[in-house]
Q: What sequence folds into this?
């Protein structure tokens, strides 16, 4: 039973953190434990690229819709989508106007949401729903009734986007948002569907001799980060401290069957494993 | 295979995984630089009740026609209780961030009730774009200090307490508004080299740069660590002022731009 303590002019509730400074490293360390509850461990998150898939229209998208429709009911899936070229246009205009970083971050999520609605229009007959953020805890309801939830991929940092290390653009994009979505729910795997066979040592769209990285670990990748990444930098930084996501896989959605094979656990495309606990 | 349908722009085709556009100059606009962004501490002020809070509210009410004030609020002991229970249950950081959000919202609502007769209005994150309206009407908008990250808070390197809490939200509010200085009302004169509540000999620091402060590598700090880190690369918010709200007149002086308490500044 908790009691109230008032000896120093402040009213405290007894707890292991009572009176403590939550900034104090010694206090923070007390909240650490090796284990962490896995809220929905048997769910797979699939991120579908905006520029790489959506902006190509039906030729790229419809085969993926079929694969997702087939997988529905056999696997618990959460789907997220990127925003694509409209995000780049938004950022480009906002940057020219000199809008502050948080202002740019506030704008971009709308384009990802539009793609979520596009996808839902195609998947609705198979049972899908665009899940609003405030419906976060309805996920078990959707999954247990075989509904495919399409989540908002951009994290809700909005006006409060932290200053980036590299420059004035927001760094917490949709890949990061989807990754965190998976991590907080204790999922083990995330699959990103793009228009390349996976992660390359250089941007394969610009360098014909770019080499595909088939299998690697997070620590190997962090030690030797390609300059142009297919996923948000922030995803990899956040993954360092993550407890649950063990594997991030990137597959080519333009090649039929790749997503299905990845969902089934095959090591197609690029497989990045967390490796050791915390790197 | 069909091509990507690309809108021409300086970023067309870009991966967007880096944070700048090399070929285009960036000249950032300060949205509302004349706003005063204030935070009322949770544990340091709210949990002390009326003895601490009422004099602060009196100063605020007296100053409200002279300034545009965005009032934000911290959590305090109930947030600590939530974090302690959630840590014991071994819940993830994102859950703690979402749960920790309830308490500063309660506190913001308490402030609103007490400031209602002076124009206090409780606002949500989604109301942020209506700030000009509230100021035009002579109101004091009151917002939770917690940023809206919630379940999307990053896991921490050590422990499971969210890195972005109410100090971070207040700093980031000031930053996006283009406000130079954010003011944090606490129950200490500002920054000390150790927790002054536990170590009476702890030395007061009146002015220090963010980099110097980070280099001191203190085990404890008066503000959340990420805020000091972000300050080093902030575009607009270049000063954090921490004042002792228990001493009458400090808030009025701070609003007038006086350097009371501690100033942490961007190098």
A:
């Amino acid at each position: 039973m908790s009691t109230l303590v008032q000896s120093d002019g402040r009213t405290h509730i007894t707890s292991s953190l009572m009176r403590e400074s939550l900034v104090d490293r010694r206090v923070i360390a007390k909240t650490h434990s090796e284990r962490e509850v896995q809220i929905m461990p048997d769910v797979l998150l699939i991120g579908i690229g905006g520029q790489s898939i959506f902006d190509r229209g039906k030729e790229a998208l419809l085969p993926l819709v079929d694969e997702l429709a087939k997988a529905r009911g056999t696997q618990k899936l959460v789907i997220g989508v990127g925003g694509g070229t409209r995000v780049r246009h938004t950022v480009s205009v906002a940057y020219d106007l000199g809008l502050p970083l948080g202002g740019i971050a506030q704008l971009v999520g709308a384009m990802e949401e539009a793609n979520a609605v596009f996808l839902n229009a195609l998947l609705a007959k198979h049972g899908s729903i665009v899940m609003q953020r405030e419906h976060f805890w309805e996920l078990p309801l959707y999954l247990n009734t075989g509904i495919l939830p399409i989540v908002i991929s951009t994290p809700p940092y909005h006006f409060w986007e932290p200053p980036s290390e590299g420059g004035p653009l927001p760094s917490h994009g949709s890949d990061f948002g989807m990754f965190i979505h998976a991590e907080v729910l204790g999922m083990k795997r995330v699959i990103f569907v793009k228009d390349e066979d996976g992660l390359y040592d250089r941007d394969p769209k610009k360098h014909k001799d770019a080499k595909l990285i088939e299998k690697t670990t997070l620590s190997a990748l962090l030690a030797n980060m390609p300059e142009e990444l297919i996923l948000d930098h922030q995803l990899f930084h956040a993954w360092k401290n993550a407890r649950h996501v063990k594997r991030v896989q990137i597959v080519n959605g333009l090649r039929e069957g790749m997503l299905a094979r990845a969902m089934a656990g095959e090591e197609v495309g690029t497989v990045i494993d967390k490796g050791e606990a915390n790197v | 295979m069909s091509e990507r349908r690309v809108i021409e722009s300086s970023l067309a085709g870009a991966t967007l995984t880096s944070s700048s556009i090399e070929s285009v100059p960036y000249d950032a606009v300060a949205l509302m630089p004349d706003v005063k962004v204030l935070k009322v501490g949770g544990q340091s002020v709210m949990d002390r009740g009326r003895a601490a809070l009422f004099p602060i509210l009196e100063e605020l009410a007296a100053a409200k026609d002279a300034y545009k004030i965005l009032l934000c609020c911290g959590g305090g002991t109930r947030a600590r209780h939530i974090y302690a229970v959630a840590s014991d249950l071994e819940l993830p950081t994102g859950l703690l961030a979402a749960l920790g959000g309830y308490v500063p919202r309660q506190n913001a609502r308490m402030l609103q009730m007490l400031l209602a007769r002076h124009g206090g209005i409780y606002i949500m994150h989604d109301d942020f774009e209506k700030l000009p309206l509230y100021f035009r009407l002579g109101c004091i908008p009151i917002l939770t200090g917690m940023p809206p990250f919630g379940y999307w808070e990053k896991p921490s390197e050590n422990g499971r307490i969210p890195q972005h809490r109410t100090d971070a939200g207040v700093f980031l509010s000031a930053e996006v508004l283009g406000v130079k200085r954010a003011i944090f009302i606490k129950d200490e004169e500002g920054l000390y080299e150790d927790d002054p509540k536990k170590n009476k000999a702890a030395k007061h620091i009146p002015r220090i740069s963010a980099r110097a402060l980070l280099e001191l590598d203190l085990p404890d700090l008066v503000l959340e660590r990420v805020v000091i880190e972000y300050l080093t690369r902030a575009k607009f918010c270049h000063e954090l002022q921490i004042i002792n709200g228990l001493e009458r007149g400090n808030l009025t002086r701070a609003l007038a731009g006086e350097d009371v308490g501690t100033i942490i500044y961007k190098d």
